């Protein structure tokens, strides 16, 4: 059995969930997922997305969050829209929130090994920047569960890069106190969560207690009481692990997509090392996922590991030869080695599979601009925008092509026209981005402290100048989207 492919099964099995009690397990607070089929606001948002009415979609998604702020599926959809609008930091924030909620991180992270790639993304604002592995949980390392202290001198709390607070040390054990806050659909990574949610998993003490005979000595009675407490703890552990195993299995597809979206968000922002970690987390859940494999290849490429990149990109094509994204991703490799012809073949292959695949047109536009054929680049971007006028990457790319055309012509009047076209595209791109942030009144968590110092490549301040080009949006690089 492939260890990564069946990761979620090992969560339930190897940690002691050898029996299943679904009827006895109410949903945990952070794990509550509103039924998307009965969620009117969510369904309205999906219908609006199909109609490319993204303002309505974002408002409806926000309304769905007022009904249930812990609905990870809503954040997942919003992360997709963030990428469409070239809001890479927002995409990371929404996708991180989605995977945290979908894996019930405040309850279930304690059952993951401390070096699990899934723990690289936590729900604490101060720990979003992947500065190291989270120290939150692993029951294998004797951290606390349901208020039961470990036998070690200290209990790991918090996440790497954040301060530990709310702990009281007495004797040889540490007990974590405090509460969990959740203001934007995210849950705190404090270890106190297990105490606050332990009532969800309590079992009948009557079925666990050993008989205490009247003639037993005090020492024997104490031993029996200790064994009773131990049995109760083991029962609760099994209830927790069974619940969490079900969470991972039920949300597996969405979790894989969520971690892949995290990787894509960082990729679009050219933060390649962080992107690599996002794709690695997706592959820890499903190592056959072609999009995650392709993303990992692009992350390697961005870090200069060309040989490893090509290996992953070829693997992705082998996994899903009918998926246009993998060809667009592999095209970036051929661009990196200067093989324009093979890159063009990859993008054409993607369009042969899906004539409306936006990243293929954007990649063609960038490729043709690199070749010095900016008029042809404009035509490729025109095609993408004719399919979806909200594709901000194409607007920004086309603005760069217009600017290059202006610089290349000696005709002053023509140059002014090209410059104006470029400015119009930039203004439209910024207007669209503003619409996103104003439509979704549930604020994005896009401060740099949440992103490990990552600085967004975009600005949402509109440019009012109409006679000169002010490039406030960074032109995307081939390989940063697919």
Structural summary, described in words:
Helix content is 54%, strand content 2%. The longest helix has 33 residues. It is mainly alpha-helical and 482 residues long. A hairpin with a 2-residue loop joins strand 1 and strand 2. It has a two-stranded antiparallel ribbon.
Layout of SSEs?
Elements: H1 7-13, H2 40-50, H3 54-67, H4 72-84, H5 88-102, H6 105-108, E1 167-170, E2 173-176, H7 193-196, H8 218-250, H9 252-268, H10 272-285, H11 290-302, H12 306-319, H13 324-336, H14 340-353, H15 358-370, H16 374-387, H17 392-408, H18 412-439
Antiparallel strand pairs: 1-2
Helix pairs in contact: 1-8, 2-3, 3-4, 4-5, 4-9, 5-9, 9-10, 9-11, 10-11, 11-12, 11-13, 12-13, 13-14, 13-15, 14-15, 15-16, 15-17, 16-17, 17-18
Annotation keywords:
482 residues; mainly alpha; 18 helices; 2 strands
Task: Kindly summarize this structure in a few lines.
This protein is mostly helical. The protein has 18 helices and two strands.
- DSSP helix fraction: 40-55%
Major sheet attributes: 2 strands, antiparallel
* DSSP strand count: 2
Runs in which pLDDT lies below 50 for 5 or more consecutive residues are 3-34, 122-208, 445-472
Q: How far is it from the N-terminal to the C-terminal residue, by CA? A: 31 Å
